[in-house]
Amino acid sequence: MTKPDVDGTGAVGAGTDEAWDMVGMPMPRADRFPFPIPNGWFVVATSAELHRGQVRPLHYFDRDLVLYRTEDGHPRLVDAYCAHLGAHLAVGGKVEGDCIRCPFHGWAYDGATGQCIDIPYGGGERIPSRARVRPYPTVERNGAVWAWHHLDEDEPFYDLPSVPELEDPAWTPPHLREFTIATSCQEMAENNHDFAHFQFVHGTDSIPESEERIEGAYKSVKNPGLERETFGLGLGIVRVPGALTFFSSVTPIDSDNVHVRWFFTVPVESGEESLRFFADQFTAGVTQDIPIWENKIYQDRPVLTKSEAGIVAHRNWCKQFYS
Ligand code: FES
Ligand SMILES: [Fe+2]
After folding, report:
1. What pLDDT sits at residue 3?
2. How far is the CA of 121 from the centre of ligand 1 (A)?
């Protein structure tokens, strides 16, 4: 971008293009997306990032959170602030058995239920049921820790898939690429249904619209040479059959930002070079999308051509993930 010709003389002012490019980016400042944090399963850590007894502060779902691993090895995720006097449980909190014990006055919370089960002073009076931190159901699978987020704290309404290649010794251990992007889960997912942008953003032929199967929270699409499965707004599995599998996880940080993790695997016989090649290719692709995503808004009533009906179908499918 060059500086605009403000006075109409054809002259441009002092200052570098680089400085100009940085000012005010991302450009939309507020109310970009009219939807709340979606309900669904989301990656909150890789398995390797959480040892037994370890406590980590997190910020996802527009909440301050604490992730810890029990002495038995179960990951637990709860809201960060103690129901007593508000200490952050990850700042000095300790894992004891299944519990996390607050650093301030030692109240202990069971991470599975969120309930306080021990107040280590005061002579054993009954523990009020309000002495609780909000728990998030967790599952560990495919080398990642998943948490169920639901705005109304409802139970999971779809299951997480397994990715057999990630457990198969004939496929490489996963190669991780991760980034944060100023966008929302729904907007990122919409990109897959936006066929016209392939030509303009990615310089490739528009991918022909192919048959899509939709069942509740699940979707699948088969294109020649590329298959994609989608589970809610947090998880996609992409396959170049026999050559590459990657799973893509998109976790909302808040309503305007997401944390993306891509786990790539290829057959061991294809080698490290092939693994890096695919990871580089897909990362280069998303790098082209990022400036668009980070500076666009969500058009609630977009003007579309007939060929873009898939975008409307996608938006209708997304409605099931919002309270
Ligand atoms: S603030 Fe946590 S025990 Fe008092
Ligand atoms: Fe794209």
Report:
1. 40
2. 12
Rounded CA-CA distance 237/246 in Å is: 6
Closest C-alpha to ligand 1, atom 1? 85
Single out the residue in 149, 183, 212 at which a domain terminates.
Answer: 149
Q: Tell whether ligand 1 has an atom less than 6 A from the beta carbon of residue 87.
A: yes
Cα Rg of the chain (Å, integer) = 23
C-beta of 91 in contact with ligand 1 (< 6 A) = no
Pairing status of strand 235-240 against strand 138-141: unpaired
Ligand 1 centroid vs 114 CA: distance in angstroms? 14
Amino acid at 225: G
CB 295 within 8 A of CB 22: no
What's the Cα-to-Cα distance from 147 to each of 8, 122, 137, 150, rounded to whole Å?
Answer: 56, 35, 6, 10
Cβ–Cβ < 8 Å for 267, 250: no
Domain with 310 in it: what CATH number? 3.90.380.10
Beta-carbon neighbour count of residue 47 at 10 Å? 14
| Domain containing residue 142 | 40-149
> Do 194 and 316 fall within a single domain?
yes
pTM of the model: 0.89
Q: How far is CA 217 from CA 42, 229, 234, in A?
A: 14, 11, 11
Per-residue pLDDT, 124: 80
Residues of the chain with pLDDT under 50: 1-13
Instruction: Please report the pLDDT score of residue 192 as a whole number.
Output: 86
Task: Say how far apart CA 218 and CA 214 lie, in whole Å.
Answer: 6
Tokens read off for 135: 């728990």
The Cα–Cα gap between 239 and 228 comes to 6
Non-local CB neighbours of 144 within 8 Å, separated by 6+ positions: 43, 45, 46, 47, 249, 261, 263
Cβ count within 10 A of residue 153 = 14
* Judgement on whether residues 145 and 209 belong to the same structural domain of the protein: no
